[in-house]
Amino acid sequence: MMATTRILEGLGRFYIGLLLAFLYLPIIIMALMSFNVSPFYQLPFEWTTEWYASLWQNDQLIAATWNSVEIAVITTIICVVLGSAASLALYRYEFRGKKFLQALLFPPIAIPWLITGTAMLIFFFGVGIGRGLHAILLGHVALALPYVIVVVSARLQTFAPELEEAARSLGANQWQVTRRVTLPWIMPGVIAGGLFAFAVSFDQFVVSYFLATPGQTTLPVEIYAAIRKGFTPEINAVSTIIIVVSMALMLLTARFFKFGGEK
Amino acid sequence: MAAATASRSGLRSALPLLAPAYLWLTVAIFLPLSAMVFFSFMTELPLSGKPWAFTLGNYAAFFSQSLYLTLLLASLRLGLEVTLWCVVIGYPAAYVLAKVLKGRSREAIFLLVILPFWSNGLVRIFSWAMVLREGGILDTALNAVLPFKINIDLMYSYPAVIIGLVHSYVPYMVLTCYLTLQAIDDSLIEAGRSLGASRLQVLKRVIIPLSMPGLVAGAALIFVPVVGSFMEPRILGGRTGTFYGTIIEDQFVAVFNWPLGAALSFILLAVVLVILAVASPVLRRAA
């Protein structure tokens, strides 16, 4: 009986190893190919960094990268401010329709981006907002905001309201209570929410794709266009950079926010 | 006491904090979704300068031309297949994570499993092109090992689309199942075992029923975006990669028939909402 358990556990570990291989091998191969000399991905492997060097010559790609970074940073700032405020309100006050407002956060997360993206395209075009970077920013904030509110609200669940009560009874006004007591407590949630928002925006492809114009695109949109023209090691190089950046970002997020509710 | 302060303050105090966020969501999500419904009943875009009128023609097109229905069914089938593979691959992994691994190694591996999920989806789909194409890694590796020559050319095929999508979404299934599995008290499993139930019986009678909310949540979270996917079939499916999502994409970026695209999008939205509604009782029980 013990032996069977041990064998099953061993099999389980082996299985997890297989899953990790499935998840990471393509990414690793893609990264390796970005350092391979052959532009047609021919083996044997010969080391080079020329594809990374040629990225620097690609003005279009560099412009798109800056757009992506800029939009992600602005999205993060807006989402953190608006999202934290909304979370605080939802935590602190009771009012009719609160459940409804909380439920409204899920359509943006649950509805496929294809639908949201095309709907934004139609509406922004119809009311004269148009397409371009400003429209992309408008869309990204809306997509990331519910995530920030959910993450910050989760952190607020662990907050003891007696602390606010105590501060108030010691003579602090509402603003002082918020700034000195509540905000420091929820800060890890705010930081995690901000990193989430950055990741949602920086990796966003679908919505950006429908809202981009030829001169005003983001990096994923530019990569998609390049992929559809044909595969080149340059795409591997820029993809490798993206994947390293976004994984580093999520590792950072994990430091502030425990996924999966570990006990 | 906190509740007393809270109800006293009410909506008036909450409004200034809530308004900016919800105003933004209204302008960028809820109004666009409403506008999409509105546009789907039009013959032309009102802004194009051409005369326009209300019509049911866009919906009539969906029901009269079998192409659209066929593609919607193909997308639903794709969603079903990908979801099933994610259950088959993800559930055992979630079980091992929740019940076999302990402590720091569990934390580290859990993070490793969900990490790719948060990295760029487009790039991960592209990475499969490196593996699956003829003369790609899978091909070369197998030919190096096997004594006979084989040609693996999965690229631009239906299986390639499935593989890419399962790779993209399986971490979701692991995540949701892990959450419900780790909440199952080990003593329940031990009790079942000590009462003479076999491992299989415990799995069937205790573990799977108790983790059902995680399975349903994962299935909904995977099925919905897969049915609406277009970039994955385009990159990995090539000419075989025509699905409902790619037809919608075409209406907006190639054919420029926005009203038809809006109608097709809205039909997809309706299908998605029905699926979420069916799944929601199970999900609510979990919460």
TrEMBL record, chain B:
Superkingdom, natural source: Bacteria
Keywords, alphabetical: Cell membrane, Membrane, Transmembrane, Transmembrane helix, Transport
Gene3D superfamilies in the record: MetI-like
Topological relation to the membrane, as annotated: Multi-pass membrane protein
Location within or outside the cell: Cell membrane
Main location: membrane
Transmembrane segments: 21-41, 82-101, 108-131, 156-181, 202-224, 260-283
Start and end residues of each ABC transmembrane type-1 domain: 72-279
InterPro entries with a match to the protein in the record: MetI-like, MetI-like_sf
Cross-referenced PANTHER family: INNER MEMBRANE ABC TRANSPORTER PERMEASE PROTEIN YDCU-RELATED, INNER MEMBRANE ABC TRANSPORTER PERMEASE PROTEIN YDCU-RELATED-RELATED
Record family assignment: Belongs to the binding-protein-dependent transport system permease family. CysTW subfamily.
Protein name per Swiss-Prot or TrEMBL: ABC transporter permease
Taxonomic lineage: Bacteria, Pseudomonadati, Pseudomonadota, Alphaproteobacteria, Hyphomicrobiales
